[in-house]
């Protein structure tokens, strides 16, 4: 069953005379429990695609359905309501609130959903254990490392069991050890909780943790790779090969 | 690109940032200029009490300069912090710090001079209005004319260039003390590391509360007679001031964070959106804000206290004049009294008359004194008091060996207080009469001129009075021996009757007094004080309100990324706005409430020096203050809403 179904998404900036097309008709569908990556060179439109899919930005054309609900027709307030119940976010710059402790940051999405305090704390305890942030729960964001911040951010995305989690370059600001640690946790959570994850990245290693990679070039889908039963190492090789073909500046003669 | 071009471009680009600074400048210059214009105005110079007035206005002008300096330096500090990145960039491309400082100075100078010109123009127009207000409150019926004063202009220009120097100095210190890297981070780094609540903080918070309460307690005892020696009194006043200000600081630094932390702990990490927007954000900043909040609170308390006191005296001008002069008109000379009676009759006024004899005699009050006053200028165990017979009054009756005190001024009572009963001796020339003292009544019978400025009048039985009259001590008969009081049946005619009284000019009559005259006099004197204090209070209010508002503007910019996150997570604008309202209620409410409390206790300790009414005038002043303050709170909420709307 598909959690997300998007067809013919278009997005352009500027006015009638100075139009710049960023997305030019993209079809994406994501199944429940899938972990997909979106890759592409800088400027290919991958972050715009993620913003549009996650309802933070509006499309210029096309339709997006999440859990069967059409997103493009919703009003701002309905979108906010939808985001808080059905979507989770992980950002490159962590986006934790400095004024809140780790625990408070993580529990934030539950407080909007009016979950009872006992349930919320239970949900926190099990998730904190899985992500290894038990000991830092009462610390403030400026007292912990980047990896810990990103795991906190991940926990906040998972806590309310959203239909789909959007991650924008989650490993972008991390060193390689913290990055692989985070990605292992993400794929664990994906497997164990059947959480659906859509991640934008330009790092092939990060992408190799996912089950499917969508390559975007100049606002269009270039190709897709499925991991299938391959090992992560050989999947990584495939990704790098595709990236090699796709990447770089083309010289026109 | 030359430096000059760069300066101009910079200014164009920074206009958005400048407007806050420009506003602060125009406002301060306008205010100051209008005030100084007033000081140099010949119309004001002509006012009767000109020496007193000039001195009062000059003192006020100095206080204005101090407030304005603090205000401008603060506005500038916010402003330069916003431009930290730009300064870092200049350094990065190889400009020296001296050069950057020069660029900033020239830029600032252009802004400064143009705002000053606007400010002077605004102030000039505004001074007319102020003048009219001044003449209205003092009751002087002079036409307010608009005079441009070169001296006022010069003074304003000099003062503001000195302030400019101070601002440049702070800018220089800022630029000097920063490295390229720290400048890039200037906006995000200001708050420093957040730490958990320590025991020390709890102790500090409690100590703050204790100090404030101690200050309040001492202030309520201040004029109860516990501190009767002048040195003790001064010491107590200094203690109150120190304790309350320090206590306020510690209270802000410790208690608020402590209380907020308790609330937060109870939530066990499960905060709702209102908590996130208000509680955590306030806690995050309270420590670094406490000094600013203390200044604002102290300044507000000062303004509230002073304006309440002066308004109390203005408001109770009528009552005070009634206390000082119980009858509408009084005279001592029988001839004069007869003539005035005749005149009143002829002019067709309905009135009634009082006539009685007043003796002065030495009264030994040693045994009924509550406390010995060692530092006073005279010995209160023996006082020359006016004595009248109970036959002169309908309301009071004394037995032959009894005496009643009445009409004791509250101000004097705060220094020298009497027991409820006891023994006194009235000394005649040869004999001494022992009397039972029956207590103090509140009726005022004799005007100030008879009672030595507020000493009580002694009411005795007719027989005692008669025997005293036989044995009179001539040496102490400083005041007239007879009293004639006139009261109109219809007080609305008082103004015309006073005109008549004045036209007869009994200037050689020792007992001459007119209630209405005194009322006008009181109003004129207090109107001036009230005007100056009200002006200062308003300035205090507007500057402290502006500082809070600027601060909130700054905070909202700093929190913008948080709002972005929250909105991405699915909180709506309405959710966030609700939280902001709560936050602003605390941010503006706490300094307001603490300021009002401080003001209340300050006013309560000494209000009776200023007038006879307490609650009504004080509550009016406080109400106005609260409303004006809330306007700033409302403005800051509007600004926050804009930031929140633009956050996603």
From TrEMBL, chain A:
**What GO molecular functions are on record for this protein?**
ATP binding; ATP hydrolysis activity; transmembrane transporter activity
**Entry-linked Pfam families:** ABC_tran (PF00005)
Question: In its keyword annotation, does this UniProt entry include Transport?
Answer: yes
List residues of the ABC transporter domain: 4-243
Q: Which UniProt keywords apply?
A: ATP-binding, Nucleotide-binding, Transport
PROSITE patterns reported for this sequence: ABC_TRANSPORTER_2
Which Gene Ontology CC terms are recorded?
Answer: membrane protein complex
Instruction: Read off the SUPFAM superfamilies from this record.
Output: P-loop containing nucleoside triphosphate hydrolases
Tagged with keyword Nucleotide-binding: yes
For this protein, the record's CDD domains field holds: ABC_MJ0796_LolCDE_FtsE
For this chain, the family text in UniProt reads: Belongs to the ABC transporter superfamily.
> Per its record, how is this protein called by name?
ABC transporter ATP-binding protein
From TrEMBL, chain B:
In which compartments does the protein localize?
Cell membrane
- Membrane topology listed for this record: Multi-pass membrane protein
Keyword Cell membrane included in the entry's annotation: yes
* Annotated ranges, domain ABC3 transporter permease C-terminal: 60-176
Gene Ontology CC entries for this record: plasma membrane
Q: Does the keyword Kinase apply?
A: no
Instruction: Report the transmembrane regions from the record.
Output: 18-35, 55-75, 109-130, 150-175, 196-218, 233-252, 291-314, 528-550, 585-603, 615-640
Q: What's an example Gene Ontology biological process for this entry?
A: transmembrane transport
Record's superkingdom? Bacteria
Which Pfam family name is an example for this entry? FtsX
Q: Which UniProt keywords apply?
A: Cell membrane, Membrane, Transmembrane, Transmembrane helix, Transport
UniProt similarity note: Belongs to the ABC-4 integral membrane protein family.
The name on file for this protein is FtsX-like permease family protein
Lineage, broadest ranks: Bacteria, Bacillati, Bacillota, Bacilli, Bacillales
């Amino acid at each position: 069953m598909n959690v997300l179904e998007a067809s013919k998404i278009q997005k352009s900036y500027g006015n009638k005379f100075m139009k710049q097309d960023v997305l030019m008709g993209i079809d994406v569908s994501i199944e429940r429990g899938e972990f997909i990556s979106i890759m592409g060179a800088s400027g290919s439109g991958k972050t715009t695609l993620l913003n549009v899919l996650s309802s933070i930005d509006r499309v210029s054309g096309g339709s997006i359905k999440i859990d069967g609900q059409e997103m493009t027709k919703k009003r701002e307030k309905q979108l906010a309501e939808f985001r808080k119940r059905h979507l989770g976010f992980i950002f490159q710059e962590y986006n934790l609130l400095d004024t809140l402790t780790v625990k408070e940051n993580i529990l934030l999405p539950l407080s909007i959903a009016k979950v009872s305090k006992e349930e919320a704390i239970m949900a926190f305890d099990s998730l904190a254990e899985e992500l290894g942030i038990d000991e830092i729960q009462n610390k403030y964001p400026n007292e912990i490392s980047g990896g810990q911040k990103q795991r906190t951010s991940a926990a906040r995305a998972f806590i309310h069991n959203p239909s789909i989690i959007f991650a924008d370059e989650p490993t972008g600001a991390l060193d390689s050890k913290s990055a692989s640690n985070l990605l292992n946790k993400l794929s664990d959570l994906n497997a164990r909780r059947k959480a659906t994850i859509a991640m934008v990245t330009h790092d092939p290693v990060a992408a190799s943790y996912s089950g499917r990679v969508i390559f975007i070039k100049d606002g269009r889908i270039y190709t897709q790779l499925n991991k299938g039963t391959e090992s992560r190492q050989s999947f990584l090789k495939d990704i790098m090969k595709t990236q090699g073909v796709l990447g770089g500046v083309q010289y026109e003669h | 690109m030359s430096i000059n071009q760069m300066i101009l471009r910079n200014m164009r680009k920074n206009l958005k940032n400048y407007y806050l600074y420009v506003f602060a400048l125009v406002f301060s210059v306008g205010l100051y200029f209008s005030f100084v214009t007033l000081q140099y105005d010949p119309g004001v110079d002509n006012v009767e009490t000109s020496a007193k007035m000039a001195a009062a206005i000059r003192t006020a002008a100095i206080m204005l300069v101090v407030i304005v300096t603090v205000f401008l330096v603060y506005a500038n500090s916010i402003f330069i912090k916003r431009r930290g990145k730009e300064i870092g960039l200049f350094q990065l491309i190889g400009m020296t710090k001296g050069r950057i400082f020069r660029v900033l100075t020239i830029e600032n100078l252009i802004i400064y001079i143009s705002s000053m010109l606007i400010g002077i123009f605004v102030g000039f127009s505004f001074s007319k209005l102020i003048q009219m207000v001044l003449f209205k409150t003092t009751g002087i019926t002079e036409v307010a004319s608009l005079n441009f004063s070169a001296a006022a202009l010069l003074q304003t220009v000099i003062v503001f260039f000195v302030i400019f120097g101070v601002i440049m100095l702070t800018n220089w210190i800022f630029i000097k003390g920063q490295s390229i890297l720290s400048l890039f981070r200037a906006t995000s780094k200001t708050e420093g590391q957040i730490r958990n609540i320590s025991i020390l903080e709890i102790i500090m918070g409690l100590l703050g509360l204790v100090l404030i309460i101690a200050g309040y307690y001492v202030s309520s005892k201040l004029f109860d007679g516990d501190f009767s020696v002048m040195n003790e009194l001064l010491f107590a006043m200094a203690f109150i001031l120190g304790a309350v200000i320090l206590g306020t600081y510690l209270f802000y630094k410790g208690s608020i964070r402590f209380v907020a932390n308790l609330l937060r702990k109870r939530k066990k990490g499960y905060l709702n959106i209102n908590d996130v927007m208000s509680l955590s954000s306030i806690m995050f900043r309270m420590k670094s804000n406490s000094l600013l909040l203390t200044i604002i609170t102290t300044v507000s308390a000062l303004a509230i206290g002073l304006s309440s006191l002066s308004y109390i005296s203005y408001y109770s001008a009528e009552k005070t004049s009634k206390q000082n002069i119980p009858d509408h008109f009084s005279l001592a000379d029988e001839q004069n009294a007869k003539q005035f009676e005749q005149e009143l009759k002829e002019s067709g006024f309905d009135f009634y008359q009082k006539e009685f004899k007043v003796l002065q005699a030495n009264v030994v009050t040693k045994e009924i004194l509550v406390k010995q006053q060692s530092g006073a200028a005279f010995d209160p165990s023996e006082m020359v008091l006016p004595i009248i017979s109970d036959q002169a009054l309908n309301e009071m009756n004394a037995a032959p060996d009894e005496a009643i005190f009445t009409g004791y001024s509250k101000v004097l009572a705060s220094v020298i207080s009497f027991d409820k009963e006891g023994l006194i001796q009235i000394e005649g020339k040869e004999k001494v009469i022992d009397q039972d003292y029956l207590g103090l009544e509140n009726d005022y019978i004799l005007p100030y001129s008879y009672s030595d400025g507020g000493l009580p009048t002694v009411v005795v039985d007719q027989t005692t009075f008669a025997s005293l009259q036989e044995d009179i001590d001539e040496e102490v008969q400083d005041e007239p021996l007879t009293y004639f009081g006139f009261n109109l049946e219809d007080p609305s005619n008082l103004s015309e009757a006073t005109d008549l009284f004045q036209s007869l000019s009994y200037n050689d009559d020792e007992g001459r007094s007119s209630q209405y005259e005194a009322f006008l006099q009181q109003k004129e004197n207090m109107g001036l004080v009230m005007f100056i204090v009200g002006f200062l209070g308003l300035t205090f209010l507007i500057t402290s309100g502006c500082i809070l508002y600027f601060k909130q503007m700054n905070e909202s910019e700093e929190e913008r990324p948080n709002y972005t996150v929250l909105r991405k997570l699915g909180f709506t604008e309405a959710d966030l706005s609700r939280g902001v309202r709560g936050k602003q209620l605390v941010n503006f409410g706490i300094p307001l409430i603490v300021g009002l409390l401080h003001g209340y206790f300050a006013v309560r300790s000494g209000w009776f020096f200023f007038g006879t009414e307490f609650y009504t005038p004080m509550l009016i002043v406080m109400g106005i203050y609260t409303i004006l303050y809330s306007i700033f709170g409302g403005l800051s909420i509007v600004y926050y809403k804009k930031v929140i709307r633009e956050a996603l």
